[in-house]
Amino acid sequence: MDPLDELYAARPEEFTALRSKLAAAAKKRGDADQAKKISAARKPTTAAWVINRLAHADDDVRARLGDLGDRLRRAHAEMDGARIRELSAEQRRLVDDLSRTAFEEAELTNPSAALRDDVTSTLQAAVADQDVAARIGRLTKAEQWSGFGEFGAAAAVFKPTRGTKKTKAEPAAPEPERKAARAELRAAERAKAEADEALEELQADLATARLRRQDARRRLEEAEAALAAAEEAYEKGKQASRDATARFRRANAP
User: At CA 53, angle to CA 43 and CA 110, rounded to 5?
Assistant: First the structure.
């Protein structure tokens, strides 16, 4: 397995230590470019890791998302309403199926609403955006698709159809406020999760830096001891050379 694939398939709590290990291994075998790429790899968010893990467990994930995206793009280009509705239903089924499988593969039995939303939105974005689909397996964060771009005004693909008939003017229902509150809560949960993950990585980086400092101090102490021993040996060698020269001169004196 490619070291970067191995890295992005690892659990988030193992990422930092494994990154250091793989970078050191690449450097040891003389692959400086690979070592640099591994060292620069960003730790994925939980949502990105869940989807990466799914892709590494099932090689067909990228192909399934990409194929559906291609068919949807053709249907929109041809303005084939019946085909768009058919493929939109297929998209919902595929995203639901992959989301469920992804959480099972990640062994997350009770993911938060924010995490579910991030995984779903990333899979939807992979259908709409070929670049996102290609990066699945090495994603570093959740992706979003606004509903614009190649699919045009296809935002309804992801939303249930509602009736448009209205009665006489009534006070605004509280549903929009509830939706806004739920969205704000999910955003806050995501922000907290990302902050916690960033803190965890910083803590791991700090621990790694301290270990490196300790190792550097140990190697410095060893180098200083070796230098002192070499200097002492050199002085003894100089004295031995002087003594030998003196004996030689005495032996050759008339």
Answer: 95
- What pTM did the predictor assign? 0.58
CA distance 139 to 44: 7
Q: Position 229: which residue type?
A: A
Structure tokens at 86: 């058919």
Identify the band that residue 231 occupies on the pLDDT scale cut at 50, 70 and 90.
Answer: confident
**What digits encode the pLDDT tens for the residues 133-156?**
999 999 999 998 755 445 533 433
8 A C-beta contact, residue 12 and residue 197: yes
Residue 96: HSE in the Cβ half-sphere, 13 Å Cα cutoff: 7
Interior/surface letters 18-45, b for 16+ CB within 10 angstroms, e for the rest: bbbebbeebeeeeeeebbebbeebebbb
Q: At 45, list the tokens.
A: 């968010």
Distance CA 136, CA 55 (A): 7
Whether 70 and 148 have beta carbons less than 8 Å apart is answered as no
CA 215 from chain center: how many Å? Answer: 28
Task: Round to whole Å and give the CA distance between 137 and 68.
Answer: 18
CA 90 to each of CA 95, 169, 170: distance values in angstroms, whole numbers, following the listed order: 9, 37, 37
The domain locations on the chain are 44-159, 187-254
